[in-house]
## 1
Amino acid sequence: MLVALIIGIFFVVASISVYRTLLLRRPQKKLINSRETNFAIDNDAVTKLQKALKLETISDQEGLHDYTTFLHFHALLEEKFPLVHRILSREKFGKYSLLYKWPGSNGALKPMMLMSHFDVVPATKPSAWRYPPFGGVAADGYIWGRGALDVKGGIVAIMAALERLITEGWRPRRTIYIALGHDEESGGSKGNALIARALRDRGIRLHYVLDEGGLIINDFSKDIASPVALVGIAEKGYLTLALSVLGGGGHASAPPKNTATGILARALTRIEKKKFPLTLGAPIMALLAGLAPHLPFGKRLVIANAWLFAPVFKAFMARSDFMGAMLRTTVAPTMLQGSVKENVLPTQARALINVRVINGEQVASTITTIKAIINDERVLVERVGFAAEPSTISRTTSEGFLDLSTAIATVFPNAIIAPYPVFATTDSRYYEAISDDTYRFLPFAVDKSDLQGIHGIDERISQESLSLGVEFFVQLLKNGRA
Ligand SMILES: [Zn+2]
């Protein structure tokens, strides 16, 4: 009887699983490759981005230092995009961040906002780059340099699209804001935070905000032949903690049993060993639902029945650092400090750990968990720098998401559009309280290997990508209900 019951349950579960899998059918339409669609390289945009990349608008750990370059960047925008500066109004916030406004003809429509930032992280090891990081070199079909993808490419694409629309005589029905931050890489508190506050004080409510945070990945997975357009609908929280251990100092020839460095090292090892739990939240499920129809039967079966396969499935996903980061709060030790001399014991050993908090968790509860994992009173845990709670989750059923998807489908007809949780932070979070939805997507098609260039070596954007990016913004503003 028991055996019959077990067999019965097995068949019921198996049938449901297969049924759910079949619901996620593969698309019938034969997909075409976007690389074959007709378009011309936008040489004008290429040249302008080259110029933009030559300006060293660097944001460092302490904040921004060479402010004159930021003014040069403003001047470059004025010179290269004269129509934008004639038709749109411009305000400065925190001296260097820019807010452009193109008033729409229909005041009843909520304004929309496009964002980008022009500060960049420093280029470590410039000699290791194929082309100089601030050389603005166009070669091999790419434009090379720090900021090409993060995000001067975005600025040039937006501005070039606006110039084109103005030239064509197009005028918006919905008011368009363009916010260009100057301190995103150091937290955005002097730029977009101020813009967001000003808009809030003016009683402005935004239709949606579109910022960086997602891209089109050409080679997303070997199971999927098409490029995947990742549209961020949520972003993780952000937090940095300083772990410090006091030591007595003294001569290194007669060390105590436990040195400050040793105690700190043990705390770091514990953090690295004891990972946060894996969770399948709403944004990751939205991503999987978007990808599932394009995956082979076996994988579709697992996704369609995540309720059944959750434990195995989560463990499988976490094998990739990239996917793992979408499934859990991550902790990364980044900076270390000990003694100032090789033969002197440290009076303090200190480490910074950078934490990305998954949607559904909170900064405070995460700190409590980390303290519990370290479980050592000699290690002082303190918050440093800025912190941000995880974002809310934006809708994939909104008019804004539909406009975005339509523009993606028009310019990249073979791309699969997949919502996803962004695991980096963006300045868009400052607008969350005054915007109906927040999306994080840059219309640039890249290979996975190109992602290493962001904050790394050999950052580049293909000339084709930049050109299609301009086309995307033209389509988004034109075809959308703007
Ligand atoms: Zn960025």
## 2
Amino acid sequence: MFLPDFRFHQPITLQDAVGLLMQKPNAAAMAGGTDLLVEMKKGLRLHDDIVSLAKIPELKRIIEDEQNLFIGACSTHSEVMASQLVDNYAPALAEATSKIGSEQIRNTGTIGGNICTAASCCDTAPVLLAMNAAVEIARAENIRIVPLRDFFSFNKKTILEKGDLVTRIIVPKTRPGTGTCYEKFGLREAGSIAVVSVAANLNIHEAFITDACIVIGAVAPTPKISDQAVESLKGKKVHELTEDSPSLEEAGDAAVRDSIPIDDIRGGAQFRRDVLKVLTKRAILRAIKNTEIGN
Ligand SMILES: Cc1cc2nc3c(=O)[nH]c(=O)nc-3n(C[C@H](O)[C@H](O)[C@H](O)COP(=O)(O)OP(=O)(O)OC[C@H]3O[C@@H](n4cnc5c(N)ncnc54)[C@H](O)[C@@H]3O)c2cc1C
């Protein structure tokens, strides 16, 4: 497996990167290259021009305003994990990135590359969806913001068009009374991709669940918000949701009803359903606990 020939561009401004992607007929953006180069080596993709994003400083910044975190698309998973802002306001995202691949992959792969690959098993999207994140996209002179829930169109497909570059991911900050978490099941503890994953984001006020988002990963063509699990949780009293309680069982079953798992080398569809139920219940219990400890 050798990489095919291509022209390599390393712009230092966003404007130049966007310009190159628009002008060159068959160009691809490259952040860490941990997905792109593997696919090119395997002959699954062929590009005449590769536009590296590695030297554009603004794509690596993690900043905040009153309400949101703005995470530069080229922040590596290790940088996201190490960010104090992420730790303070999106701890489940730090948790999800810490579970990605190996240290080498986390030091090279980026959060933007992770969502642009749009694999249903990718680790950052479930948490970002659960937190109602949005994606900032640049093309030519224009910047637009798209909710992440509208970003994935199918497995490994996004709404990005020629010349589009993801510049930042906008993540609403967690507020008091919010508990989030990420559960991942892989075939090994380290270095394996998700067979099933679940992200939970619960809002609790006076012991009632006032708002919730449950996202299921690797059990549908894209990471998916489980509307049925969300409905089953809203308005529930927290102490109705104890281990093995009927309400918790129902939330787990609801997530399974929203899944469309496949059989593949990592697990059969029924195995995935069984694991999904367990992970959903575990994620809900942990998110409730995280609310109590102020996460
Ligand atoms: C050994 C190994 C283990 C892995 N383990 C995991 C794992 O546990 N969990 C997981 O989720 N993933 C895993 N991955 C997949 C991969 O590492 C991640 O998806 C990573 O985040 C991809 O980021 P990247 O910067 O390397 O993307 P790249 O390979 O640079 O790009 C991926 C795709 O996104 C496009 N792209 C990149 N950045 C942008 C941008 N800013 N705007 C528009 N398009 C863009 C590229 O054109 C390309 O199509 C693994 C990969 C390997 C090789």
## 3
Amino acid sequence: MRMKRILMTLLCIATCFSVIACGENENAPINAPGTQTPGATESVPTVAPTSGTSAPKPTQTPSSGIAYVPQGEENYTVELDPNAEYWDCPISQVGQVFTHSLIAYLEMTDLATNPESYWRNECVTVSEFKRFLQSVYDKGYVLINMNYIYEYKEDTDGVLKAYLKKSIKLPKGKKGLILSVDDVTFNPWQHGKGRVDRIVVHNGRLASATWMNDGTVDYSYDREVAPIVEQFCLEHPDFSFAGAKCMLAVNATFGLLGYRTADSFEGKKDYDGTTIRVAEEREEAKKVVTYLKNNGFYFACHGYQHIAVNTFTAAQLREEFRLWNKEMKSLIGYTSIYVYPQGAWADYGTEQHNILLSEGFHVFCGTFMGETLMNGMPKSPGVGNIFTQRCILQGNTLRLYGENGKADGTWFWKYCDPYAIYDNDARYHKVQRPA
Ligand SMILES: [Zn+2]
């Protein structure tokens, strides 16, 4: 009964809050988060200890008739330092937070002057993001790769599934944090309005490039999530466990990492007036992807078009993945992680969910004011494959966590004090800590 109650609470809260992030909904809910943190440990099945480096058996066709396609599933393994001390961090202590690409150039935005500014809700400023990083570092979190939290097992129905581990080896006393960034595309319509334009490798380091109004290109190591995380980990090497940085959830319609990799851009004008050649854009994007993957960043599928997966017909969703596989898989490679566009998930057993499985996805990420990490789906726990909801780091949720959240060290407060993170200097909407 307790499990049922927790799940009902989870579903209710998730319904309230899942639309906040990554979406087109500008009206942030004003409800306070629920009082019950969804239990992760209750739904963690018993799993065998982490095995070595051998890959599991190929995926097989399940009895339900879903045509599973082997996609390269392999257990993620790390090499432990024989001279270091580790502990078994319970999986329930692994946190997960997502944000969007940052508000990079405050002076280009109307964030401080317009109460309806686009930037007020779904993004954080550079200062807010850096304060968050410092806070989670100070609280003993280390960045981990999301693929570290599960291992593949062949289920009783003969299908390969991802199962949460009970615990993960981490440096003694440290807790794992899965940090992800959604929509890392840098849409052309955001050009000149406060975002950077693309991720580049500049002087051997991750940087952003932005075409300024005066015709110059500004290269910066300090204005977007990936370069800032790289710099922070250079300064604090113990913040990155086994080299892990953060997950980049990408969709394809507007390109990848700011490169115009979609066929629809062929022949169009770039920011500097030159003509876009998609083949060249793809080559440039590949170089940056290679650098990112070699340096601990990893990718998740965030849909081809960034449309809520539960609104697709089966035929539409198959077309979505035909395009994804054609345009994106050749750039970023295989990923087992699917980040629901607009935070809307497809229930277990639905045709949409079955198609996601058949495309090789085993880990599903939504958004939530709290967080969830469990095997199965909310209505169908324990069915194998991982379902997660991530805490949301963005303008409207910082206000909500501060004003309505739980200041008791759970929920978002275990990562940081929202009042200390929130950038009152940059924002029109001020937040005042209660007396
Ligand atoms: Zn999104």
## 4
Amino acid sequence: MVVSIERTDENVSSARQRLLGWYDRNARVLPWREGPGAALKADPYRVWMSEVMLQQTTVPHATPYFEKFTALWPSVADLAAAPDERVMAEWAGLGYYSRARNLLKCARAVVNEHGGVFPADEAALLKLPGFGPYTAAAVMAFAFGKAANVVDGNIERVMSRLYAVKTPVPQARPLLRELAARWVREDRARDWPQALMDLSASVCRPKSASCLICPLREDCAAFAEGQPEAYPRKAAKAPKPARHGVAFLITSEDGFVVERRPDKGLLGGMLGLPHLEWRAEVWGEAEIVFPSIRHCRDAWENLGTYAHVFTHFALNQQVWRIELSADEMTAFLREHNAYQGLSWADVKTLPTVFAKALKL
Ligand code: SF4
């Protein structure tokens, strides 16, 4: 069934009022957000930080990182002056590490090129490292209260349902942006995208839309069709290619051995376990070259294999462990300059792909 909903300016304005009224009663309280009642004044630095962290990350997972980062570095100038290694270590566990590198580059650009003040101009924001159309629009709306077309995956979902868009994403993205722009007004410019996001988080959820309590129900073509969760339509996904690796866990009572990864490439600049190349073929035991340690080969124990999914491939990684005495560990680190020791308490500074190996 194809359903057509009349969308005059008047209808859109009245639907906006209903959603904003719902938002006034149901807005989430978030530590970076200026919400209804304005208990907190929006600060561009905090808004930007939250947006970088929330890319590909949920609010509950990102919030403790946001609290930690803004406590350690309360202003953009503090962050710009922070050592790279410290920022990368504190980012561990949030994933997509290029975001952390861009976070630093952007903080330094704001200090060096804009006197430590984020520009209230979308074109100028877009020139800053790590800023794309979404982040620039989000900072304009959430931090500066300007009318901007903020469209993330959640707002795409609401638009795809309001209009029952049959084209699958990602092809539908330009159309969804254009549909979202039709709802943007100067009036309550900050609240509008925040209201859409809160609706998408608690009412218009991906797998279960609670249409009966939705303030946009009478404006929604997917509800009228009776199958809201059928939207957004998705193109069939190609399976991710598999890669295989071998990680080495060299431990003593005090901790374990890590290496700093090259600055460029996947997980660039982060700490990681020593490992063999991530390749298409499974590593046979006979071809594994273990780090040289004055022990017989039999001292290595195979702990098993774990899976970790990156954006472009799925990794299956074997883990081999060897336990050294404190003296052997000291000698090993002295002989191998490329490696360094970490205490067990430092597990949290490892990216998730390596922290999983320690869980084995
Ligand atoms: S009526 Fe249902 S599908 Fe439509 S916007 Fe509301 S919750 Fe989403």
